[in-house]
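pasting for ref
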Amino acid sequence: MKVTLKAIASELGMNESTVSYALSHKGSLKAETRERILKTAAQMGYVPNRAAQQMSTGKSNLIGVVVPNVLFELGEYCEHLFRLLSEAGYLTSIMVTEFSPERELSIFRNLIGQGAAGLIVCPTTHATTGETPLTLARRNGIPVVCRYHLPDENGILPDYRAIGRVLGEKLRKSGHRNLVLMIPHPPPFPPFSAPLLEGVAEKLGCGGRVRMEAASPGDPAPVRGNFPANPHYEPQMRSLLESGFPEAAEEVFDRVWNSSGSRPDAMLCFSENTAFGLMEAARKRGVEIPRELSLVTTQHTLFGKFLPIPVTAAYVPPLEFAEKTVALLLKKIKQKSTQTEQVSLKPVFFPGGTLHPRYSKETT
Protein backbone atom coordinates (compact mmCIF):
# COMPACT_ATOMS: atom_id res chain seq x y z
CA MET A 1 0.00 0.00 0.00
CA LYS A 2 1.30 3.45 -0.91
CA VAL A 3 2.62 5.52 2.00
CA THR A 4 0.62 8.76 2.21
CA LEU A 5 0.99 12.07 4.02
CA LYS A 6 -1.97 11.04 6.16
CA ALA A 7 -0.21 7.84 7.22
CA ILE A 8 2.96 9.72 8.17
CA ALA A 9 0.94 12.34 10.10
CA SER A 10 -0.90 9.57 11.96
CA GLU A 11 2.37 7.85 12.85
CA LEU A 12 3.78 11.09 14.28
CA GLY A 13 0.56 12.42 15.81
CA MET A 14 0.81 15.59 13.76
CA ASN A 15 -1.35 17.54 11.32
CA GLU A 16 -1.15 16.49 7.67
CA SER A 17 -0.33 20.08 6.67
CA THR A 18 2.72 20.08 8.97
CA VAL A 19 4.02 16.92 7.34
CA SER A 20 3.40 18.41 3.90
CA TYR A 21 5.35 21.56 4.76
CA ALA A 22 8.29 19.51 6.03
CA LEU A 23 8.46 17.21 3.00
CA SER A 24 8.21 20.14 0.56
CA HIS A 25 10.77 22.15 2.56
CA LYS A 26 8.30 24.99 3.07
CA GLY A 27 7.02 26.86 6.09
CA SER A 28 8.86 27.90 9.24
CA LEU A 29 8.99 24.61 11.11
CA LYS A 30 11.57 24.02 13.81
CA ALA A 31 14.64 22.21 12.53
CA GLU A 32 14.14 19.26 14.89
CA THR A 33 10.48 18.89 13.83
CA ARG A 34 11.35 18.92 10.15
CA GLU A 35 14.18 16.42 10.70
CA ARG A 36 11.87 14.08 12.66
CA ILE A 37 9.27 14.13 9.88
CA LEU A 38 11.85 13.54 7.12
CA LYS A 39 13.40 10.64 9.06
CA THR A 40 10.02 8.99 9.70
CA ALA A 41 8.96 9.43 6.08
CA ALA A 42 12.17 7.77 4.90
CA GLN A 43 11.75 4.88 7.34
CA MET A 44 8.18 4.31 6.14
CA GLY A 45 9.29 4.32 2.49
CA TYR A 46 7.49 7.49 1.44
CA VAL A 47 7.86 8.45 -2.24
CA PRO A 48 6.58 11.92 -3.27
CA ASN A 49 3.92 12.14 -5.97
CA ARG A 50 5.77 14.10 -8.67
CA ALA A 51 2.66 14.46 -10.83
CA ALA A 52 0.72 16.01 -7.96
CA GLN A 53 3.62 18.34 -7.17
CA GLN A 54 3.75 19.45 -10.77
CA MET A 55 0.02 20.18 -10.82
CA SER A 56 0.26 22.25 -7.63
CA THR A 57 3.41 24.16 -8.50
CA GLY A 58 3.24 24.22 -12.30
CA LYS A 59 6.86 23.03 -12.36
CA SER A 60 8.53 19.78 -13.37
CA ASN A 61 11.97 18.42 -12.60
CA LEU A 62 12.11 16.37 -15.80
CA ILE A 63 14.88 17.01 -18.34
CA GLY A 64 14.68 15.30 -21.73
CA VAL A 65 17.88 14.27 -23.53
CA VAL A 66 17.15 13.54 -27.20
CA VAL A 67 19.95 11.95 -29.25
CA PRO A 68 20.14 9.93 -32.51
CA ASN A 69 21.83 7.01 -30.74
CA VAL A 70 23.75 6.14 -27.59
CA LEU A 71 26.81 4.75 -29.38
CA PHE A 72 30.40 5.90 -29.02
CA GLU A 73 30.86 9.47 -27.75
CA LEU A 74 27.12 10.12 -27.41
CA GLY A 75 26.83 7.25 -24.93
CA GLU A 76 29.58 8.72 -22.76
CA TYR A 77 28.03 12.19 -23.13
CA CYS A 78 24.61 10.90 -22.00
CA GLU A 79 26.17 9.11 -19.02
CA HIS A 80 27.75 12.36 -17.84
CA LEU A 81 24.52 14.31 -18.46
CA PHE A 82 22.53 11.80 -16.43
CA ARG A 83 24.87 12.05 -13.43
CA LEU A 84 25.18 15.85 -13.56
CA LEU A 85 21.42 16.39 -13.85
CA SER A 86 20.74 13.89 -11.05
CA GLU A 87 23.14 15.78 -8.80
CA ALA A 88 21.24 18.98 -9.64
CA GLY A 89 17.96 17.35 -8.53
CA TYR A 90 16.48 16.58 -11.95
CA LEU A 91 15.00 13.42 -13.43
CA THR A 92 16.47 12.55 -16.82
CA SER A 93 14.72 10.86 -19.73
CA ILE A 94 17.13 9.78 -22.50
CA MET A 95 15.30 9.25 -25.80
CA VAL A 96 16.73 7.88 -29.07
CA THR A 97 15.54 9.15 -32.47
CA GLU A 98 17.60 6.81 -34.71
CA PHE A 99 17.90 9.81 -37.07
CA SER A 100 14.12 9.77 -37.73
CA PRO A 101 12.65 13.30 -37.98
CA GLU A 102 9.16 11.89 -37.33
CA ARG A 103 10.31 10.12 -34.18
CA GLU A 104 12.16 13.21 -33.00
CA LEU A 105 9.01 15.33 -33.31
CA SER A 106 6.96 12.65 -31.50
CA ILE A 107 9.51 12.51 -28.67
CA PHE A 108 9.41 16.30 -28.29
CA ARG A 109 5.61 16.26 -28.14
CA ASN A 110 5.73 13.57 -25.47
CA LEU A 111 8.32 15.36 -23.32
CA ILE A 112 6.57 18.72 -23.63
CA GLY A 113 3.29 17.01 -22.71
CA GLN A 114 4.97 15.69 -19.56
CA GLY A 115 5.89 19.23 -18.58
CA ALA A 116 9.63 18.90 -19.13
CA ALA A 117 11.59 21.73 -17.52
CA GLY A 118 14.15 21.70 -20.32
CA LEU A 119 15.54 19.69 -23.23
CA ILE A 120 19.01 18.77 -24.49
CA VAL A 121 19.06 17.62 -28.09
CA CYS A 122 21.47 16.48 -30.77
CA PRO A 123 19.16 17.42 -33.69
CA THR A 124 18.28 14.97 -36.42
CA THR A 125 17.08 17.68 -38.78
CA HIS A 126 18.29 21.26 -39.11
CA ALA A 127 15.24 22.70 -40.84
CA THR A 128 14.56 26.36 -40.06
CA THR A 129 11.04 26.57 -41.53
CA GLY A 130 7.77 24.82 -40.80
CA GLU A 131 6.94 22.94 -37.62
CA THR A 132 10.06 21.41 -36.15
CA PRO A 133 10.74 19.96 -32.69
CA LEU A 134 12.67 23.11 -31.81
CA THR A 135 9.93 25.54 -32.86
CA LEU A 136 7.40 23.40 -30.96
CA ALA A 137 9.50 23.66 -27.79
CA ARG A 138 9.97 27.39 -28.31
CA ARG A 139 6.21 27.98 -28.63
CA ASN A 140 5.66 26.09 -25.38
CA GLY A 141 8.32 28.05 -23.53
CA ILE A 142 10.61 25.04 -22.96
CA PRO A 143 14.34 25.93 -22.82
CA VAL A 144 16.40 23.84 -25.23
CA VAL A 145 20.16 23.43 -25.62
CA CYS A 146 21.31 21.95 -28.94
CA ARG A 147 24.50 19.98 -29.33
CA TYR A 148 24.91 22.09 -32.43
CA HIS A 149 24.92 25.75 -33.49
CA LEU A 150 21.59 26.64 -35.10
CA PRO A 151 20.02 30.06 -35.73
CA ASP A 152 17.81 31.30 -32.88
CA GLU A 153 18.62 28.34 -30.61
CA ASN A 154 20.84 27.84 -27.58
CA GLY A 155 23.77 25.84 -28.87
CA ILE A 156 26.96 24.26 -27.65
CA LEU A 157 29.69 22.79 -29.84
CA PRO A 158 33.47 22.33 -29.94
CA ASP A 159 35.32 25.15 -31.66
CA TYR A 160 36.31 23.18 -34.76
CA ARG A 161 38.38 25.98 -36.20
CA ALA A 162 40.43 25.99 -32.99
CA ILE A 163 40.67 22.17 -33.19
CA GLY A 164 41.95 22.53 -36.76
CA ARG A 165 44.54 25.08 -35.66
CA VAL A 166 45.85 22.81 -32.90
CA LEU A 167 46.13 19.82 -35.23
CA GLY A 168 47.55 21.93 -38.05
CA GLU A 169 50.26 23.29 -35.76
CA LYS A 170 51.20 19.80 -34.53
CA LEU A 171 51.24 18.44 -38.08
CA ARG A 172 53.37 21.32 -39.37
CA LYS A 173 55.91 21.00 -36.57
CA SER A 174 56.25 17.28 -37.19
CA GLY A 175 56.86 17.79 -40.91
CA HIS A 176 53.48 16.94 -42.46
CA ARG A 177 52.27 18.81 -45.51
CA ASN A 178 49.63 16.62 -47.20
CA LEU A 179 46.47 16.01 -45.15
CA VAL A 180 43.15 14.36 -46.03
CA LEU A 181 39.95 14.60 -43.96
CA MET A 182 38.42 11.12 -44.22
CA ILE A 183 34.63 10.78 -43.98
CA PRO A 184 33.28 7.19 -44.33
CA HIS A 185 29.81 8.19 -45.51
CA PRO A 186 28.44 10.14 -48.48
CA PRO A 187 27.03 13.68 -48.18
CA PRO A 188 25.55 15.54 -46.38
CA PHE A 189 28.61 16.46 -44.32
CA PRO A 190 28.64 18.27 -40.97
CA PRO A 191 28.82 22.04 -41.46
CA PHE A 192 31.81 22.21 -39.11
CA SER A 193 33.90 20.30 -41.69
CA ALA A 194 34.77 23.61 -43.38
CA PRO A 195 36.05 25.50 -40.30
CA LEU A 196 38.01 22.40 -39.23
CA LEU A 197 39.85 22.26 -42.56
CA GLU A 198 40.30 26.03 -42.61
CA GLY A 199 41.95 25.88 -39.17
CA VAL A 200 44.31 23.12 -40.31
CA ALA A 201 45.21 24.94 -43.53
CA GLU A 202 45.86 28.17 -41.64
CA LYS A 203 48.54 26.49 -39.50
CA LEU A 204 50.02 24.29 -42.23
CA GLY A 205 50.66 27.45 -44.21
CA CYS A 206 51.98 27.79 -47.75
CA GLY A 207 52.99 24.50 -49.28
CA GLY A 208 50.47 22.56 -47.25
CA ARG A 209 47.72 20.60 -48.96
CA VAL A 210 44.38 19.94 -47.24
CA ARG A 211 41.42 18.17 -48.82
CA MET A 212 38.38 16.05 -48.01
CA GLU A 213 37.51 12.53 -49.17
CA ALA A 214 34.27 10.66 -48.46
CA ALA A 215 32.56 7.36 -49.21
CA SER A 216 30.83 7.17 -52.56
CA PRO A 217 27.01 7.45 -52.67
CA GLY A 218 26.90 3.78 -53.61
CA ASP A 219 27.16 2.16 -50.17
CA PRO A 220 30.16 -0.21 -50.15
CA ALA A 221 28.41 -2.60 -47.75
CA PRO A 222 24.90 -4.01 -48.27
CA VAL A 223 22.26 -2.92 -45.79
CA ARG A 224 21.05 -5.87 -43.74
CA GLY A 225 18.29 -5.54 -41.21
CA ASN A 226 15.52 -2.98 -40.91
CA PHE A 227 17.67 0.14 -40.61
CA PRO A 228 16.44 3.58 -41.69
CA ALA A 229 17.78 4.76 -45.06
CA ASN A 230 20.17 7.30 -43.58
CA PRO A 231 23.84 7.51 -44.61
CA HIS A 232 24.92 8.58 -41.13
CA TYR A 233 22.97 6.09 -39.06
CA GLU A 234 23.52 2.94 -41.10
CA PRO A 235 27.35 2.88 -40.87
CA GLN A 236 27.23 3.62 -37.13
CA MET A 237 24.84 0.75 -36.44
CA ARG A 238 26.68 -1.69 -38.67
CA SER A 239 29.99 -0.74 -37.04
CA LEU A 240 28.74 -2.60 -33.97
CA LEU A 241 26.50 -5.24 -35.53
CA GLU A 242 28.37 -6.01 -38.75
CA SER A 243 31.52 -4.94 -40.57
CA GLY A 244 30.07 -1.96 -42.43
CA PHE A 245 32.15 0.80 -40.86
CA PRO A 246 35.54 -0.79 -41.58
CA GLU A 247 34.35 -1.55 -45.11
CA ALA A 248 33.33 2.07 -45.68
CA ALA A 249 36.66 3.26 -44.29
CA GLU A 250 38.51 0.80 -46.52
CA GLU A 251 36.73 2.08 -49.60
CA VAL A 252 37.83 5.64 -48.87
CA PHE A 253 41.31 4.53 -47.81
CA ASP A 254 41.88 2.60 -51.05
CA ARG A 255 40.71 5.49 -53.21
CA VAL A 256 43.05 7.93 -51.45
CA TRP A 257 46.06 5.63 -51.06
CA ASN A 258 45.95 4.28 -54.61
CA SER A 259 45.10 7.55 -56.38
CA SER A 260 47.37 8.78 -59.16
CA GLY A 261 48.18 11.92 -57.16
CA SER A 262 50.59 12.18 -54.25
CA ARG A 263 49.78 10.05 -51.24
CA PRO A 264 48.90 11.91 -48.04
CA ASP A 265 51.32 11.83 -45.13
CA ALA A 266 48.47 12.25 -42.63
CA MET A 267 44.76 11.45 -42.35
CA LEU A 268 42.25 13.31 -40.20
CA CYS A 269 38.88 11.98 -39.05
CA PHE A 270 36.11 13.27 -36.81
CA SER A 271 35.70 10.21 -34.61
CA GLU A 272 37.62 7.34 -33.06
CA ASN A 273 35.37 4.75 -34.70
CA THR A 274 36.41 6.18 -38.07
CA ALA A 275 40.02 6.03 -36.89
CA PHE A 276 39.53 2.36 -36.05
CA GLY A 277 38.26 1.65 -39.58
CA LEU A 278 41.23 3.48 -41.11
CA MET A 279 43.70 1.64 -38.87
CA GLU A 280 42.20 -1.68 -39.93
CA ALA A 281 42.35 -0.68 -43.60
CA ALA A 282 46.00 0.35 -43.26
CA ARG A 283 46.91 -2.86 -41.41
CA LYS A 284 45.35 -5.08 -44.10
CA ARG A 285 47.36 -3.26 -46.79
CA GLY A 286 50.66 -3.34 -44.94
CA VAL A 287 50.74 0.40 -44.28
CA GLU A 288 52.35 1.17 -40.92
CA ILE A 289 50.77 3.78 -38.66
CA PRO A 290 52.40 6.10 -37.73
CA ARG A 291 55.69 5.36 -39.55
CA GLU A 292 54.23 5.59 -43.07
CA LEU A 293 51.03 7.44 -42.32
CA SER A 294 50.03 9.62 -39.37
CA LEU A 295 46.47 9.64 -38.08
CA VAL A 296 44.76 12.36 -36.04
CA THR A 297 41.19 12.87 -34.88
CA THR A 298 38.90 15.41 -33.22
CA GLN A 299 37.76 12.99 -30.53
CA HIS A 300 39.19 11.19 -27.51
CA THR A 301 36.78 9.08 -25.44
CA LEU A 302 36.59 5.82 -23.48
CA PHE A 303 36.22 4.02 -26.81
CA GLY A 304 39.78 5.05 -27.67
CA LYS A 305 41.16 2.80 -24.93
CA PHE A 306 40.24 -0.20 -27.05
CA LEU A 307 42.13 0.95 -30.15
CA PRO A 308 45.42 -0.77 -31.06
CA ILE A 309 47.23 2.58 -30.77
CA PRO A 310 45.88 5.62 -28.86
CA VAL A 311 44.99 8.13 -31.57
CA THR A 312 46.47 11.65 -31.45
CA ALA A 313 43.63 14.13 -30.96
CA ALA A 314 42.59 17.73 -30.43
CA TYR A 315 39.23 17.46 -28.69
CA VAL A 316 36.80 18.64 -26.03
CA PRO A 317 36.68 16.13 -23.13
CA PRO A 318 33.21 14.50 -22.93
CA LEU A 319 32.84 15.42 -19.24
CA GLU A 320 33.56 19.09 -19.95
CA PHE A 321 31.14 18.99 -22.89
CA ALA A 322 28.41 17.62 -20.61
CA GLU A 323 29.20 20.05 -17.77
CA LYS A 324 28.97 23.08 -20.07
CA THR A 325 25.74 21.73 -21.62
CA VAL A 326 24.05 21.27 -18.24
CA ALA A 327 25.29 24.65 -17.00
CA LEU A 328 23.84 26.40 -20.06
CA LEU A 329 20.47 24.63 -19.77
CA LEU A 330 20.08 25.30 -16.03
CA LYS A 331 20.99 28.95 -16.68
CA LYS A 332 18.24 29.21 -19.30
CA ILE A 333 15.70 27.49 -17.05
CA LYS A 334 16.48 29.94 -14.26
CA GLN A 335 16.51 33.03 -16.47
CA LYS A 336 13.19 32.26 -18.20
CA SER A 337 14.24 34.50 -21.10
CA THR A 338 14.01 33.99 -24.84
CA GLN A 339 17.51 35.35 -25.48
CA THR A 340 19.63 32.61 -27.05
CA GLU A 341 23.27 31.86 -26.42
CA GLN A 342 25.87 29.96 -28.44
CA VAL A 343 28.88 28.44 -26.70
CA SER A 344 32.08 27.31 -28.46
CA LEU A 345 34.28 24.95 -26.44
CA LYS A 346 38.06 25.21 -26.75
CA PRO A 347 40.00 21.99 -27.35
CA VAL A 348 42.81 20.27 -25.48
CA PHE A 349 45.54 18.16 -27.08
CA PHE A 350 46.11 14.44 -26.54
CA PRO A 351 49.48 13.27 -27.92
CA GLY A 352 48.45 9.66 -28.48
CA GLY A 353 50.75 7.53 -30.58
CA THR A 354 49.71 8.03 -34.20
CA LEU A 355 51.50 11.29 -35.12
CA HIS A 356 55.00 10.59 -36.41
CA PRO A 357 57.79 13.23 -36.69
CA ARG A 358 58.60 12.92 -40.38
CA TYR A 359 60.97 15.49 -41.84
CA SER A 360 61.54 18.21 -39.24
CA LYS A 361 63.78 18.04 -36.19
CA GLU A 362 61.21 20.02 -34.29
CA THR A 363 58.67 17.61 -32.75
CA THR A 364 55.40 17.93 -30.90
